[in-house]
Amino acid sequence: MNDLTSVDEALRLLAEHAPTPTMENVALADALGLRLASDVVAQVSRPPAAVSAMDGYAVRIADVAATGSTLDVIGEAPAGAPFEGTLGPGQAVRIFTGGVLPAGADHIVIQEDATRDGDTLTCHRAYDTAEHIRAAGVDFEAGATLLREGTVLGAAELSLIAAANLATLSVYRRPRVGILANGDELRPPGSDLQPGQIVNSNPIGLSALISSWGGEAVDLGVAPDDLDAISERIETAKRIDIFLPVGGASVGDHDLMRPAFAGAGFQSVFEKIAVRPGKPTWFSTKDDAVTLGLPGNPASAFVCAWLFLKPLITGQEHSFVPARLCCDLPSNGPRTHFMRANARITDEGMVEVKPAGSQDSSLISPFVSGNALLMRKSNSPALVAGECVDVLLMKPLGLSS
Ligand SMILES: Nc1nc2c(c(=O)[nH]1)N[C@H]1C(S)=C(S)[C@@H](COP(=O)(O)OP(=O)(O)OC[C@H]3O[C@@H](n4cnc5c(N)ncnc54)[C@H](O)[C@@H]3O)O[C@H]1N2
Ligand code: MOO
């Protein structure tokens, strides 16, 4: 096994050679899923001033300490048009949700608790503590650092940034990942398949994973089992950060991806990984570009995309979740095994994991019926049901049963 690079060493080498992310400014609407290239600092406080949380009347609490107190309504403060005067003793200002609290007021009487007759307001309740006011900056203060560099932008983050009064952002450009399939047998989905032909099913799934991880998938097509044809695809590809050849990674006479990339000037970093599935996964670099070669077997391609492509795109390490094994497992061989599995939360709130019945590296269906990869380190001993294992979640827990 000497020619096999360990999973940990492969991850270290990938991190060491990962393409340097470039920065760009984008509009908020184009930033979903991207990573922040700098901290986000609030340009305004939220809310910028104290506001009413209810529709009603802004008053001084001292004036409504007793039931039946009456006040003069001296003006209005709808959201967007603050009352410009100062509220004095015995006075009230009609206010609406989001309206700026007038100077002098320290309490809101909700309209359900008062009756208005012309400009006279009568309160039906006595109050001893101020209510229904949102203080200035209760969500965040101007100048506060709201998000750190590296944060992946989701719905909540984008709303927060918009509220902080920023229209554009500095983000890391999506790395362009060029998927190059290879094999004379491959035909597009929907083809009239002839004997020996199979559907080219890997790129569509890999492309979806790349997008979900914040990369931009570029379809470099299917190259036939011909060195010149593969080389031409490599030479004519434009602005690719990460080449992702899929298939043709092994030792067969028709496995030509490695020599094609070597011929294009890529220098090998590692040739094989002590991982199951996906042993023939390889990695090479040239200038600012890298090549992660995945095996063609669909399970190998998917597992190794999760393990090795995802950190290359996101720059983030994997986080494993501890889970209770729900069956016995034999001792593991020399390669770290990432078993296709399903994890779920039990009624007792524990995470429980069950490996798929077949771990054949050609199978796609376990990725649909399952949601996790169960890690078994190289040469680890047999396990019995109930023992704890580490799992990598590919979907949120509980989505599949
Ligand atoms: N003598 C040896 N043979 C093999 C070894 C070995 O060490 N010695 N390694 C095996 C392992 S492990 C794997 S994994 C595979 C990897 O093979 P390749 O990367 O060269 O992949 P292909 O031969 O091109 O294809 C394998 C398999 O997957 C199908 N395939 C390929 N591309 C696609 C695609 N885009 N969509 C769907 N299916 C695809 C292809 O038809 C084959 O059935 O090698 C073992 N052999
Ligand atoms: O390492 Mo290969 O991916 O098992 O079939």
UniProtKB/TrEMBL annotation:
Keyword Metal-binding: yes
UniProt cross-references to SUPFAM superfamilies, sorted A to Z: MoeA C-terminal domain-like, MoeA N-terminal region -like, Molybdenum cofactor biosynthesis proteins
Coiled-coil regions listed: none
Domain MoaB/Mog: 178-315
Pfam families, per database record: MoCF_biosynth (PF00994), MoeA_C (PF03454), MoeA_N (PF03453)
Protein family membership: Belongs to the MoeA family.
Role description: Catalyzes the insertion of molybdate into adenylated molybdopterin with the concomitant release of AMP.
Name of this protein: Molybdopterin molybdenumtransferase
